[in-house]
Amino acid sequence: MLHDLTMIAARPSAFATPTRRQLLGTTAFVALTAGLLTTTMSRFAVAAATFDDAQKMMLLRVARDIYPHETLLDNAPYQAVVDAILTEADKDEKVAKMMSDGLTDLDKRADAVYKSKYVDVKNPLEREGLLRQIELTDWFQKVRGGLLFGLYNNKALYPKFGYDGSSWEHGGWINDPSFGKVEWL
Amino acid sequence: MAATFDQNDDSVVVIVGSGAGGGTMANELAQKGIKSVVLEAGKTLSLEDIENDEWAMFLKISWLDKRYSGGTWHGHINHPNLPAWIVKGLGGSTVHWAGVSLRYQPHEFKMKTTTGGVPGANVLDWPISYDELKPYYDKAELKMGTTGDVTGMPHLPWSSDFKVLAEGARRIGYSKLISGPMSINSVERDGRPACQQIGFCMQGCKIGAKWSTLYTELPRAVDTGNCEIRTNCMVLQIEHDKSGKVTGVVYADKDGKQQRQKARAVLVAGNSIESPRLLLNSASSKFPDGLANSSGQVGRNYMSHMTGGVYAVMPGKVFQNRGTQVAGIVRDESHHDDKRGFVGGYTLEKLTLGLGFLSAFMVPGPTGWGHKLTSALEKYDQTSGVWICGEDLPQEINNIELHKTEKDQYGLPVPIVNKTDHPNDTNMRNHAYAQMGKIYDSLGAIEVWNLPAYPASHNMGTNRMSEKAKDGVVNKWGQTHDIKNLFVSDGSQFTTSASCNPTLTIVALAIRQAEYVADQMKKGAI
Ligand SMILES: Cc1cc2nc3c(=O)[nH]c(=O)nc-3n(C[C@H](O)[C@H](O)[C@H](O)COP(=O)(O)OP(=O)(O)OC[C@H]3O[C@@H](n4cnc5c(N)ncnc54)[C@H](O)[C@@H]3O)c2cc1C
Ligand code: SF4
Q1: Which residues 6+ apart lie within 8 Å of A135 measured at CB?
Q2: What are A27-44's pLDDT values in tens digits?
Q3: Count of H helices and E strands in chain A?
């Protein structure tokens, strides 16, 4: 049984000292910006001119590795978040540079450790290890923030997690047969 | 009939904020025939605005003006601009609150005497006792509709999630397991319906079963014709005359234009960050350190409770979201016994988090991602959890500081909320983590997760009550030691934080303060 007392604070990685800007990728800020992001994003893959197919694939892989639900979720909700970022990158050079520099750097790190491209690292835990090295960068937090909302604040996906969401429309749970029942105790 | 008062009418009492403290004061004074103007920085809200959606409600009604988290708590990294979770809107944080309504235990008013003092902490006895406050606790419970003996309302039915917690607690030998006292109607009462176990109490109760000043105290105050509420009005400064008496306030209206409302007395109830900030921002040549600050204690002794969370994946379904968010509490550790390695005690409160919040807070901040987290989230309907609410010691270093250069949209210095744990907090939190681990182990938990503190929902102590003027900001009536017609009416009055959620005590103090204000006005003392 694991009682992890160490999950208290962000541990700055050896590779990046967090700047205040990077740390804006946290709760309040993420709530404000990612909320907007997910509402305006397209549901279809966009023809983001700035990125080649390999980069787009890699971004999708990164997205799936940040919040992995290999059997629970298909690509669509991840793709939607990636597309929103690509669309933004098309309009904003700074975002485009940040993202493509980030991907290049990640591939370099994969090469340094595994002599391989990031997407070709087979073991998901090894990919997670690579991402841990860069978790405090702006580009990573941008993807993470978008996903946090795109996956877990996405009403269409609630049922997959066993979450019921809004209940006042059907009078709450007071008269539901499951209320107050525990089958396994 | 809604009253409107002239801005030059200096016979009115000005109340800053419409939450637990301010909303209660408005109604109590109005019922006594005392005229008041409530200035509320946030917008008008109604039940129409309430949704069963965690982030949507957070974004709609939270106080999101610029703030910084300071001190060494994890939030200065993980929640750098969200030190606290407070509402900016009509009804204040009583829109978001969960409804837990615990009375302080008698010894919790006397922590200096009980502990003999604690090194590194600024512990002080309250200048009032439980016995003095008891009749007002009764009145507060009747007002708020608190389940239990005083109202005669039964506690709420046990949800499956509370049954799980209670069974684990029983297995490790605990016995104080109870689904109240909650200020949530378990039966129809006072014009409000019984709880339907909707499960989004902290997003605002869609049917109004939970007490909130939004649809109880405030409309009742307005109905008397003695109270005018102005929303979107942010008080910037309290003004005073040569003698040092306060004369009114300057505020920014909805268009950002500065306005002035004269007043016979000013009651400050903006919650424990904004209330001291307002006193500090009201510094003048006569009071260079801020109003009512001869003690230097304004903004100090900030407390937010020793908190944390513990969530565990159970072997079977729990359906944590199907029922009141705080469906029950465990009080076996709320006594004082320093043999446990800390002074004071803590309460364990079952707390539902929806998928949106659980995913964000299970491992908060930029490191909250990865396969371990996602495999737990996939078992959302098997997850059960508690929030820990423990006594947090007053320390001078925990304070509301004004930023030296940065200003907010009103042109006021941005507040920095400094919070660093005392070793007592750390010991108590680790004790609570260990006890919760035992509880969940006894149920065969698959995984147990310890969560650090959330952005503070309980904020206390920054204008504290003291017997002597040198030790605190207000006297036992919440009247500032320095200025007779200036009062503090919210949780910033708290001398110590206890193992209890603060709102019932805020309301009890407000009812008592309203009697005192009325009496002092009648006597012409203010
Ligand atoms: C999610 C959540 C759950 C909670 N659950 C519980 C619980 O179960 N039990 C419990 O006891 N407590 C609970 N609380 C805490 C409770 O809500 C607060 O203790 C209580 O509301 C504080 O009352 P207050 O009057 O000090 O401030 P508030 O209720 O926060 O009201 C302050 C008001 O003042 C306004 N204001 C601030 N500054 C100014 C200004 N300068 N000018 C004009 N207006 C201003 C604000 O906009 C706000 O509306 C919870 C809080 C949250 C956020
Ligand atoms: S559980 Fe009860 S109090 Fe909470 S939101 Fe639902 S009806 Fe209101």
Answers
A1: A13, A141, A144, B366, B367, B369
A2: 444 444 444 444 444 433
A3: 8, 0
Tell me the C-alpha distance between B489 and B477, whole Å: 9
Picking from B317, B367, B442 by the largest number of A CB atoms within 10 A of its own CB, the best residue to mutate is B367
Q: Is A74 exposed, middle or buried (0-12, 13-18, 19+ CB in 10 A)?
A: exposed
Q: What is the pLDDT of residues A3-14, one digit of tens each?
A: 332 233 333 333
B14 vs B517: CA distance, rounded Å: 12
A176 in contact with B at a CB cutoff of 8 Å? yes
| Contact call for residues B137 and B151 (beta carbons, < 8 A) | no
> Which segments of B327-444 are extended strands (E)?
329-330, 346-350, 383-390, 400-407, 413-418
Look at residues A97, A178, A92 and name the one whose alpha carbon lies nearest to residue A139. A97
Q: Which amino acid is at B183?
A: S
Which residues in chain A (51-110) have CB-CB distances under 8 A to chain B? 66-69, 72
CA distance B485 to B266: 6
Which tokens hold the place of B237? 């400064």
Whether B197 and chain A come into contact, CB under 8 Å, resolves to: yes
Does the pTM surpass 0.90? The reply is yes
Architecture of the structural domain at B13-522 = 3-Layer(bba) Sandwich (3.50)
Do B82 and B455 contact (CB within 8 A), yes or no? Answer: yes
- Look at the block and give the residue holding tokens 């539902």: B352
On whether the CB atoms of residues B380 and B405 are closer than 8 A, the answer is no
Under 8 Å between Cβ of B451 and B362: yes
- Is cis: bond before B181, omega within 30 of 0? yes
For atom 37 of ligand 1, the residue with the nearest CA is B270
In angstroms, the CA B335 to CA B337 distance is 6
**Directed axis angle between helix A138-152 and helix A93-114, to 10°?**
100
What element of type H or E holds A102? helix A93-114
Name residues 81-110 of chain B within 8 A of A (Cβ): 81-82
- pLDDT at residue A31, as a whole number: 45
Q: What ipTM does the predicted assembly reach?
A: 0.90
Tokens of B431: 């004790």
Coil, strand or helix at B56: helix
> Does the C-beta of B238 come closer than 6 Å to ligand 1?
no
Q: What does the block give as tokens for B107?
A: 């010894």
C-alpha B489/C-alpha B506 separation (Å) is 8
3-state secondary structure of A110: helix
